[in-house]
Automatic annotation (TrEMBL):
Highest taxon of source: Bacteria
Keyword Coiled coil in annotation: yes
Protein name according to UniProt: Cell division protein ZapB
Entry coiled-coil feature ranges: 1-49
Keywords: Coiled coil
Length: 96
């Protein structure tokens, strides 16, 4: 009978240990999920920041070409032609 009680006590102790570990893992999992979400948001903000900087860089290249920089004159002409075509489309849509 004593042997059965020892086995039951051992099982109870192991079960309590498992439950404690389970709770700790649940907490750690929640913390990791929150950290993951935060990192995803930081990546998205970084990507938006990169897009904004790239846009500013393109605008700066166009401005430099207009001012007289010999670099990217062809690119600037293409950009201006694209803008003119877009303006023409807008005018056409307004006149309809």
């Amino acid at each position: 009978m004593s042997n059965v009680l020892e086995i039951v006590d051992s099982l109870q102790s192991k079960l309590e240990n498992l439950l404690t570990k389970y709770e700790l893992l649940k907490i750690e999992n929640q913390q990791l999920l929150e950290k993951s979400e935060k990192l995803v948001q930081e990546v998205q903000q970084g990507q938006e920041s990169i897009k904004a900087i790239e846009s500013k860089y393109e605008s700066l290249k166009v401005a430099n070409a207009i001012v007289g920089s010999k670099e990217d004159k062809h690119t600037t002409k293409l950009k201006i032609n694209t803008l003119i075509r877009e303006i023409d489309k807008c005018i056409l849509q307004l006149s309809e």
